[in-house]
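hey so u asked for the seq, here:
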Amino acid sequence: GIAWGALVDYWFLTGNDKWSGLVSQGMLAQVRPNYDYSPPGIGGTEVRLAAMSATELTFINHPSYLPQWIDLAHNVFSYQTWRWDDQSRGGGLHQQLDPSAQGYSYKSTTAAANFFLLSSRLAQYMKNGTYQTWAVKQYQWMNAIRLTDFNHHIFDGPDSAASCSQIINLA
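ran it, structure tokens below
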């Protein structure tokens, strides 16, 4: 996913479309039946953000019968809002999708930050208050449970099984 995003940026900055077809094909190959990237494909959350970059930068068009980049980004956003868990620590996204999977109770800072990025970028691009509301909600949740501090340090996520009281310091 990071490579796809880097190549979208490369295309935009250089105008060189040598790899654009391959990038488009690779990103579209990870689309799931619900026309999103969930559950995550090989690229994980980064390919979701690459789809948003492709939208913002008007990356190469692909056939109209395939999902468009903005549709993929919106569908991922919708899936993330469905996954939001108010039951433990007042919000956030679990790292795992399956409640029976080991590590399900862990709420990943990476998932939180990527959801914030996607929501805020959709809000800016679409001029839609729903995306903005979710971006603010995610940001406030990250601050409320102290995933960030006033020195701009970022901490690893909490484990909801431990009441989210133990947050790993990565600074």
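Residues 31 and 37 are 5 Å apart (CA to CA). The mean pLDDT is 83.
lmk if thats what u needed
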